[in-house]
Write a structure and sequence with these properties.
Elements (H helix, E strand, L loop, with lengths): L4 H14 L17 E3 L4 E3 L6 E3 L12 E9 L3 E8 L6 H14 L9 E6 L5 E13 L2 E13 L5 E9 L5 H10 L1 E2 L1
Antiparallel strand pairs: 1-2, 2-10, 3-4, 4-5, 5-9, 6-7, 7-8, 8-9
């Protein structure tokens, strides 16, 4: 089985949903205040109310195809956001969009009509490409649906950065997308 960001991200999201906010029985971390800079990515986000720093459960990891994960991972009631600095051979936003499309086409559990792509501009003037789709899976007899969003931008060094937001479809709200589009900025 080919593991990719979407398969691993989906499993990771399910682990987060099953755990009590980043650590099972451990106390929840304090909410994030202010702006978060994602290490090595050259971007930042101001998440606002209801977001927490989270270390993935041991062994779960957050992996990016063709890139390096840039901590921290942040979570909210609606989902999980992680950032990856793409390898240099991903030289354009389009090259990442093509890779997402190829992976989408290879996963049998997808809603075949859910792939969407659109250019976007943040309130800070950063231009990018938003690629999203719905992933469905059945595990232990229970169906789950995750919306996978990729906000792909180029940092000041010309490197492509993938802001991946994975949300339980029941809790995917405009609030998280507005937060990304309003506060995603270059460092």
């Amino acid at each position: 089985m080919k593991l990719n960001i979407h398969t691993i991200g989906f499993v990771t999201l399910l682990l987060f949903i099953a755990a009590i906010k980043c650590g099972g029985a451990q106390p929840s971390p304090p909410p994030i205040t202010g702006t978060i800079t994602f290490s090595g990515s050259g971007i930042s986000i101001t998440p606002g109310e209801g977001w927490y720093r989270c270390e993935p459960p041991t062994g779960a990891g957050v992996f990016f195809r063709g890139g390096i994960a840039c901590g921290p991972t942040i979570v909210s009631e609606s989902g999980m956001l992680s950032v990856g600095l793409m390898d240099k051979h991903y030289s354009s936003l389009e090259s990442v969009a093509v890779q997402v499309r190829e992976e989408y086409d290879s996963i049998l559990s997808e809603d075949r009509h859910s792939l969407r792509r659109e250019p976007f501009v943040t309130d800070t003037g950063l231009r990018g490409l938003h690629v999203s789709y719905v992933q469905r899976s059945v595990r232990d007899g229970r169906a789950a649906e995750v919306r996978c969003h990729h906000y792909v931008v180029t940092n000041r060094d010309g490197r492509v950065v993938d802001v991946a937001y994975l949300a339980d479809a029941r809790h995917d709200t405009n609030r998280a997308h507005e937060m990304i589009r309003q506060s995603l900025s270059l460092q």
